[in-house]
Amino acid sequence: MVPAYVPNPVAALCGGGTPIDFNRNFSDGKRILGDGKTYRGLVCGVAAGILCGCLQIWLVSTYQLDLPRHTLASVTLLALGALLGDMAKSFFKRRLGKVRGEAWPVADQFDLVIGAFVLTLIFDPAWILANITWQVLVVILILTPLLHRSVNIIGYRIKVKKEPW
Ligand code: CTP
Ligand code: MG
Protein backbone atom coordinates (compact mmCIF):
# COMPACT_ATOMS: atom_id res chain seq x y z
CA MET A 1 0.00 0.00 0.00
CA VAL A 2 3.00 2.34 0.23
CA PRO A 3 2.57 3.60 -3.39
CA ALA A 4 -1.06 4.49 -2.52
CA TYR A 5 -0.31 6.09 0.86
CA VAL A 6 2.58 8.33 -0.25
CA PRO A 7 0.83 10.57 -2.88
CA ASN A 8 -1.58 12.40 -0.51
CA PRO A 9 0.99 13.76 1.99
CA VAL A 10 3.40 14.61 -0.86
CA ALA A 11 0.59 16.48 -2.68
CA ALA A 12 -0.03 18.44 0.53
CA LEU A 13 3.70 19.28 0.75
CA CYS A 14 4.19 20.26 -2.92
CA GLY A 15 0.69 21.29 -3.99
CA GLY A 16 -0.30 24.75 -5.15
CA GLY A 17 -0.55 26.70 -8.37
CA THR A 18 -3.01 25.97 -11.15
CA PRO A 19 -6.10 24.10 -9.94
CA ILE A 20 -7.01 20.98 -11.96
CA ASP A 21 -10.48 22.43 -12.70
CA PHE A 22 -8.86 25.72 -13.95
CA ASN A 23 -11.11 27.65 -11.51
CA ARG A 24 -14.19 26.54 -13.42
CA ASN A 25 -17.62 25.96 -11.91
CA PHE A 26 -19.91 22.98 -12.42
CA SER A 27 -23.52 23.37 -13.62
CA ASP A 28 -24.62 23.86 -9.99
CA GLY A 29 -22.55 27.05 -9.82
CA LYS A 30 -20.03 25.56 -7.39
CA ARG A 31 -16.41 24.73 -8.20
CA ILE A 32 -15.85 21.44 -10.06
CA LEU A 33 -13.04 20.30 -7.72
CA GLY A 34 -11.84 23.38 -5.84
CA ASP A 35 -8.47 24.99 -5.07
CA GLY A 36 -7.35 21.98 -3.03
CA LYS A 37 -6.71 19.87 -6.17
CA THR A 38 -3.78 21.20 -8.22
CA TYR A 39 -1.67 19.90 -11.10
CA ARG A 40 1.52 20.28 -9.07
CA GLY A 41 0.08 18.22 -6.21
CA LEU A 42 -1.15 15.55 -8.62
CA VAL A 43 2.11 15.21 -10.57
CA CYS A 44 4.45 15.35 -7.53
CA GLY A 45 2.23 13.02 -5.49
CA VAL A 46 1.92 10.36 -8.20
CA ALA A 47 5.65 10.61 -9.02
CA ALA A 48 6.57 10.17 -5.34
CA GLY A 49 4.26 7.14 -5.02
CA ILE A 50 5.80 5.51 -8.10
CA LEU A 51 9.32 6.29 -6.85
CA CYS A 52 8.62 4.66 -3.47
CA GLY A 53 7.09 1.67 -5.27
CA CYS A 54 10.22 1.29 -7.41
CA LEU A 55 12.34 1.41 -4.26
CA GLN A 56 10.14 -1.39 -2.84
CA ILE A 57 10.59 -3.47 -6.02
CA TRP A 58 14.37 -3.02 -5.74
CA LEU A 59 14.46 -3.85 -2.00
CA VAL A 60 12.31 -6.97 -2.40
CA SER A 61 14.41 -8.35 -5.26
CA THR A 62 17.82 -7.36 -3.86
CA TYR A 63 17.22 -8.73 -0.35
CA GLN A 64 14.88 -11.56 -1.45
CA LEU A 65 12.23 -10.25 0.97
CA ASP A 66 9.08 -12.28 1.45
CA LEU A 67 6.71 -9.41 0.59
CA PRO A 68 4.02 -8.91 -2.07
CA ARG A 69 5.54 -8.50 -5.55
CA HIS A 70 5.06 -5.11 -7.11
CA THR A 71 5.53 -4.25 -10.78
CA LEU A 72 5.86 -0.86 -12.48
CA ALA A 73 2.19 -1.28 -13.48
CA SER A 74 0.94 -2.04 -9.97
CA VAL A 75 2.81 0.84 -8.30
CA THR A 76 1.69 3.30 -11.00
CA LEU A 77 -1.95 2.21 -10.77
CA LEU A 78 -1.96 2.41 -6.95
CA ALA A 79 -0.31 5.87 -6.89
CA LEU A 80 -2.42 7.39 -9.67
CA GLY A 81 -5.59 5.70 -8.39
CA ALA A 82 -5.05 7.15 -4.90
CA LEU A 83 -5.13 10.74 -6.17
CA LEU A 84 -7.90 10.09 -8.72
CA GLY A 85 -9.96 8.76 -5.81
CA ASP A 86 -9.10 11.91 -3.85
CA MET A 87 -10.24 14.06 -6.81
CA ALA A 88 -13.47 12.09 -7.23
CA LYS A 89 -14.12 12.61 -3.50
CA SER A 90 -13.62 16.38 -3.87
CA PHE A 91 -16.01 16.43 -6.86
CA PHE A 92 -18.78 14.89 -4.74
CA LYS A 93 -17.83 17.05 -1.75
CA ARG A 94 -18.38 20.20 -3.83
CA ARG A 95 -21.73 18.85 -5.11
CA LEU A 96 -22.81 18.41 -1.47
CA GLY A 97 -21.92 22.06 -0.90
CA LYS A 98 -18.91 21.35 1.34
CA VAL A 99 -16.17 23.96 0.95
CA ARG A 100 -12.52 23.16 0.38
CA GLY A 101 -10.94 21.65 3.49
CA GLU A 102 -14.26 20.88 5.19
CA ALA A 103 -14.24 17.44 6.81
CA TRP A 104 -16.23 14.62 5.22
CA PRO A 105 -15.73 11.65 7.56
CA VAL A 106 -15.14 8.21 6.04
CA ALA A 107 -14.87 9.60 2.48
CA ASP A 108 -11.79 11.69 3.43
CA GLN A 109 -10.08 8.56 4.84
CA PHE A 110 -10.98 5.91 2.28
CA ASP A 111 -11.04 7.84 -1.02
CA LEU A 112 -7.44 6.84 -1.74
CA VAL A 113 -8.03 3.15 -1.01
CA ILE A 114 -11.14 3.01 -3.21
CA GLY A 115 -9.43 4.93 -6.04
CA ALA A 116 -6.27 2.81 -5.89
CA PHE A 117 -8.19 -0.47 -5.85
CA VAL A 118 -10.70 0.49 -8.54
CA LEU A 119 -7.97 1.62 -10.97
CA THR A 120 -5.86 -1.49 -10.28
CA LEU A 121 -8.93 -3.75 -10.59
CA ILE A 122 -9.61 -2.28 -14.04
CA PHE A 123 -6.08 -2.47 -15.46
CA ASP A 124 -4.30 -5.17 -13.41
CA PRO A 125 -6.97 -7.30 -11.69
CA ALA A 126 -4.51 -10.21 -11.33
CA TRP A 127 -2.38 -8.12 -8.94
CA ILE A 128 -5.39 -7.41 -6.67
CA LEU A 129 -6.51 -11.05 -6.71
CA ALA A 130 -2.99 -12.28 -5.89
CA ASN A 131 -2.17 -9.75 -3.17
CA ILE A 132 -5.29 -8.33 -1.53
CA THR A 133 -6.63 -11.24 0.49
CA TRP A 134 -9.45 -10.56 2.94
CA GLN A 135 -6.93 -10.59 5.83
CA VAL A 136 -4.89 -7.90 4.04
CA LEU A 137 -8.10 -5.95 3.40
CA VAL A 138 -9.02 -6.01 7.11
CA VAL A 139 -5.56 -4.66 8.01
CA ILE A 140 -5.91 -1.91 5.38
CA LEU A 141 -9.37 -0.92 6.67
CA ILE A 142 -8.00 -0.59 10.23
CA LEU A 143 -4.64 0.98 9.36
CA THR A 144 -5.83 3.57 6.83
CA PRO A 145 -7.87 5.86 9.15
CA LEU A 146 -5.17 5.63 11.85
CA LEU A 147 -2.39 6.59 9.42
CA HIS A 148 -4.57 9.27 7.82
CA ARG A 149 -5.30 10.94 11.17
CA SER A 150 -1.70 10.76 12.45
CA VAL A 151 -0.15 12.10 9.26
CA ASN A 152 -2.71 14.92 9.06
CA ILE A 153 -2.05 15.96 12.68
CA ILE A 154 1.68 16.07 11.89
CA GLY A 155 0.90 18.06 8.70
CA TYR A 156 -1.17 20.54 10.74
CA ARG A 157 1.49 20.95 13.44
CA ILE A 158 4.23 21.63 10.88
CA LYS A 159 1.83 24.04 9.13
CA VAL A 160 1.67 22.10 5.83
CA LYS A 161 -2.08 21.50 6.27
CA LYS A 162 -4.69 24.07 7.28
CA GLU A 163 -6.83 21.49 9.10
CA PRO A 164 -5.81 18.55 11.32
CA TRP A 165 -7.99 16.09 9.27
N1 CTP B 1 -3.26 18.91 -2.95
C1 CTP B 1 -2.98 19.35 -4.24
N2 CTP B 1 -3.35 18.60 -5.32
C2 CTP B 1 -3.99 17.41 -5.18
C3 CTP B 1 -4.30 16.94 -3.88
C4 CTP B 1 -3.92 17.72 -2.78
O1 CTP B 1 -2.38 20.42 -4.40
N3 CTP B 1 -4.32 16.71 -6.28
C5 CTP B 1 -2.83 19.74 -1.80
C6 CTP B 1 -3.69 21.00 -1.61
O2 CTP B 1 -2.86 22.04 -1.19
C7 CTP B 1 -4.65 20.58 -0.51
C8 CTP B 1 -3.77 19.70 0.36
O3 CTP B 1 -2.93 19.01 -0.59
O4 CTP B 1 -5.17 21.67 0.21
C9 CTP B 1 -4.53 18.72 1.22
O5 CTP B 1 -5.29 17.82 0.43
P1 CTP B 1 -6.80 17.45 0.74
O6 CTP B 1 -7.02 17.38 2.22
O7 CTP B 1 -7.16 16.31 -0.09
O8 CTP B 1 -7.57 18.75 0.14
P2 CTP B 1 -8.52 19.83 0.82
O9 CTP B 1 -7.82 21.15 0.77
O10 CTP B 1 -9.02 19.33 2.11
O11 CTP B 1 -9.71 19.92 -0.23
P3 CTP B 1 -11.04 19.03 -0.35
O12 CTP B 1 -12.07 19.68 0.51
O13 CTP B 1 -11.38 19.14 -1.81
O14 CTP B 1 -10.74 17.63 0.05
MG1 MG C 1 -8.85 17.74 3.36
Could you explain the architecture of this structure?
There is one protein chain. This protein is mainly alpha-helical and 165 residues long. The protein has one domain (2-157). Helix content is 65%, strand content 0%. The chain is built from seven helices and no strands. Helix 2 (7-14) packs across helix 3 (39-62), helix 3 runs antiparallel to helix 4 and helix 4 packs across helix 5. The longest helix has 24 residues, at 39-62. The mean pLDDT is 97. Cytidine-5'-triphosphate binds at residues 11-12, 15-16, 34, 36-38, 41-42, 83, 86, 90, 93, 100-102, 161.
Keywords:
165 residues, mainly alpha, binds magnesium ion
Structure, briefly:
The protein has 165 residues and is an all-alpha fold. It contains 7 helices and no strands.
Total strand segments:
0
Small-molecule binders: cytidine-5'-triphosphate, magnesium ion
Helix share bin = 55-70%
Give the ordered list of helices and strands: HHHHHHH
Using the alpha-carbon principal axes, give the shape. Answer: globular
Number of domains: 1
Q: Indicate the radius of gyration in whole angstroms.
A: 16 Å
Rounded mean pLDDT is 97
Mind describing the biggest β-sheet? none
Structural class call reads mainly alpha
What count of helical segments does DSSP give? 7
Write the layout of secondary structure elements.
Blueprint: H1 2-5, H2 7-14, H3 39-62, H4 72-95, H5 107-123, H6 125-131, H7 134-157
Helix pairs in contact: 2-3, 3-4, 4-5, 5-6
The protein binds cytidine-5'-triphosphate and magnesium ion.
Cytidine-5'-triphosphate binds next to α2, α3 and α4.
